[in-house]
Design goal:
2 domains, 38% helix, Histidine-containing Protein, Chain: A, alpha+beta, three-stranded mixed β-sheet, single chain, two-stranded antiparallel sheet
């Protein structure tokens, strides 16, 4: 079977698979061996793409170069996750400011050890880029 025809068949199968965002997957074929490259949302999506490709008649093998990348969190989601971490750890920062979103007062972290603990917990949240410690006198 011609590699061009095989590539189109693989692309069609990937486009019809409900769990796959095929727009992010590049398909190349050489000698019946299909290479999948690009990004997918999860490892499960990566595995489904490989299985779907292997089911296409004429495919001799599959090289999977798909990277599973979670979509970035939006600022309100990051803030919600940070607040959830603080509630679980009984750490209350003075304020949480997220770019593009108003501040939420959630208590006070007056002792340096509390602020350090709050910062450590904040960094455990995916999608966080910067933590600023701005102590205030009160």
């Amino acid at each position: 079977m011609d590699d061009t025809v095989l590539r189109q068949r693989v692309l069609n199968e990937l486009a019809n698979a409900p769990m796959i965002d095929s727009e992010q997957i590049r398909v190349t074929v050489e000698g019946g061996v299909v290479t999948l490259s690009g990004r997918v949302r999860t490892y499960a999506e990566r595995a489904v793409a490989e299985r779907v490709t292997l089911r296409v008649r004429g495919v001799r093998g599959v090289v999977v170069r798909l990277v599973a990348v979670k979509p970035p969190f939006r600022p309100p989601e990051v803030k919600d996750r940070i607040l959830a971490v603080f509630r679980r750890s009984a750490t209350n920062p003075k304020t949480i400011r997220v770019r593009g979103d108003p501040s939420i007062p959630v208590g006070g972290a007056n002792v340096r050890s509390e602020r350090t603990k709050a910062e450590r917990h904040a960094w455990s949240v995916p999608g966080l880029h910067t933590v600023e410690d701005r102590p205030t006198l009160g």
